[in-house]
Amino acid sequence: MRNSKIAVLATGMTLTMALAACSGGGAGSGGNGSDGETGAAAAEGGLIGVSMPTETSERWIADGAAVEKGLTDAGYEVSLQFAGDDIPTQSQQIDQMITQGVDLLVIAAIDGTALSGQLDAAAAAGIPVISYDRLIRDSENVDFYVTFDNEEVGVQQATSLLVGLGILNEDGSEGDATGPFNVELFAGSLDDNNAHFFWKGAMDTLQPYIDEGTLVVKSGQTDIEQAATLRWSQETAQKRMEDLLTAAYSDGSKVDGVLSPFDGISRGVITALQNAGYGPGIDAGMPIISGQDAEIASVKLIADGVQYSTIFKDTRKLADQAVVTAEAYLAGEEPEANDTETYDNGVKVVPSYLLESDIVYADNIQPLLVDSGYYTTEQVESGQS
User: Fold this and answer.
1) Distance in angstroms (rounded) separating the CA atoms of residues 344 and 105
2) How far apart are CA 344 and CA 321, in angstroms?
3) Mean confidence (pLDDT) of the chain
């Protein structure tokens, strides 16, 4: 059973980087310039509302910019708004977009359950809604979902933790380490549907090792409700890690690894550990710590041997797919989905297009992030984009 799981992990750890920013590729029945009618529709223009959750994360700034550029290049006007992680602000911004008469909405929700009224109004006005990376729940008026394979992202986070501990090799084969290793588990914000998929993928991967005693969660906090980090906050993660160290490690035992689902959370965990005398880097006793989103500050930490890994979700590809999907709707066509079974929002299964992600280690920063043009060498060295 474990060997078959390892084979699946090994398969999920590779991806050919083939898409450039907003190139018009991806699977939609109306790609940029690929069809005469679609091209004509794009040329006629239209107004598209893009609602992003926050500007406090460089990931969402990059998403907003990439979606705006892709849609503008395709001939549309764009109303791009960031909601500052405030639910009423996002609701009000979307209300204003509907009042402005947008032709389509692209929404990355702060709280996936808080926008039913706005989606009802959009449906009444005939405005299609694309849920962007975070699934909007409890509404039948979500037309399409573009995202990454979020359960696989969780598998990759857990896999990188196992690789760092030496339990697995990077190719997914068995490593030499046998443990036991003390690990602690962090999850994302419970109001973000993706957090649950990340957790499921990660825990399905880690649970066999926990059951056999190779991994020990010394705090005993193995439920997502215990591990959750509201709004993915770095400060909240730092405080929880400090509390875990006080409660479970005051006997002189050490943390060997931390499952983290986001780079901001990882940096909060690292700060707490360094303040407690760990590190400063892995070579000096910093635990193996995973992450997600390949934020430039964490990429530098990986290059410097402080954070062990992150998951690279290329926002250029996600933005490109959002553009392809929007063009299909505005041309009166049905966007192509590659998943019509997984993403049940509580009212309906939302047709989805899933993209692949990559595990970033220190030894593949160059090919994955620099050679692909996502970051420059100077940005990686400075930790600033």
Assistant:
1) 20
2) 20
3) 90
Q: pLDDT per residue over 328-341, tens digit each?
A: 999 999 999 999 99
How is the beta sheet containing 144-148 ordered, strand by strand? 77-82, 47-52, 104-107, 129-132, 144-148, 352-355
Residue 252 CA: distances (Å) to CA of 103, 213, 220, 255, 272: 60, 20, 17, 10, 16
Helices (H), 212-309: 224-227, 234-248, 263-275, 296-303
* Measured distance CA(308)–CA(11) in Å, rounded: 21
- The most distant pair of C-alpha atoms in the chain lies apart, rounded to whole Å, by 70
Q: How far apart are CA 239 and CA 245, in angstroms?
A: 10
**379-382 — which CB contacts under 8 Å span 24+ positions?**
379/296, 380/296, 380/299, 380/300, 380/303, 381/300, 381/303, 382/300
> 331 phi and psi, to 5 degrees?
-95, 5
If residue 132 lies in a helix (H) or strand (E), which one and from where to where? strand 129-132
CB 339 within 8 A of CB 146: no
C-alpha 100: how far from chain center: 30
Dist. CA 20–CA 198, nearest whole Å: 26
pTM for this entry: 0.82
DSSP 75-92: T-EEEEEE-TT-HHHHHH
Q: What is the pLDDT of residues 314-323, one digit of tens each?
A: 989 999 999 9
CA-based torsion, 190, 193, 196, 201: positive or negative? negative
